């Protein structure tokens, strides 16, 4: 009998905790085990798969690459079980299908309302769950089985090659401001002028923030003052309305907020114009609701 046939769900949870906390004593306590029992189980498990998973040292343990790869799959198994429970609950409520969509906030503002109405009309018995977030978080959740499809601005360099991918079109970004903003009244705005005002920027390590800063580095331009760090496009837009805040925003999102406009800057960079795309697990290709969303998105205007 192979190790995969003997392993239990509790063991997967223990492995995840060991990678996250890197402490045998803490994980043993949380798992209602003694530390010697946990140490013996881990050694037996490593022997059964024929390789070490952790490096032991005086301060605790450090997961090796094999452990991180295994835990990524383990998290996916647990997420799938959570979705199985959710499916049963939805059947009790009269639904016959579930679909979980991950979408970046800027893309959601342009597409999501029409898409949700379309999907409900196509299948009223499908339970739809939406998760908004940055593409790095959504991609990880897709890989681990929490999501069925991701729609967003895809960073080609950071895209997971194991996921199926359909590019749809370019995503031109600009700098948005309230129409009453002092800079909005100018025919042309210099980068130096924007530095006099506070900015709302995406989270520090998000793909969009990295692209934004790389484009500034390439031109030798200073970073603006990030007064608010937020991944929530709707909130960012509402804060910019009636204030002096500046915020990076997709150009076609601006019409959703008539009080905003795109500044006519003397600076732009192709690094900011990412690709709108769809990501999904290859093994899910052919699933009816997945194909329905892919088909609908493919027929929409291919710029955001």
UniProtKB/TrEMBL annotation:
Cellular component terms (Gene Ontology): cytosol
One Pfam family here: HTH_1
Statement: the UniProt record of this protein carries the keyword Cytoplasm: no
Domain of life of the native organism: Bacteria
SUPFAM superfamilies for the chain: Periplasmic binding protein-like II, Winged helix' DNA-binding domain
InterPro entries (alphabetical): HTH-type_LysR_regulators (IPR050950), LysR_HTH_N (IPR000847), LysR_subst-bd (IPR005119), WH-like_DNA-bd_sf (IPR036388), WH_DNA-bd_sf (IPR036390)
GO MF terms, alphabetically ordered: DNA binding; DNA-binding transcription factor activity
Keywords: DNA-binding, Transcription, Transcription regulation
Family, as annotated: Belongs to the LysR transcriptional regulatory family.
Protein name in UniProt: LysR family transcriptional regulator
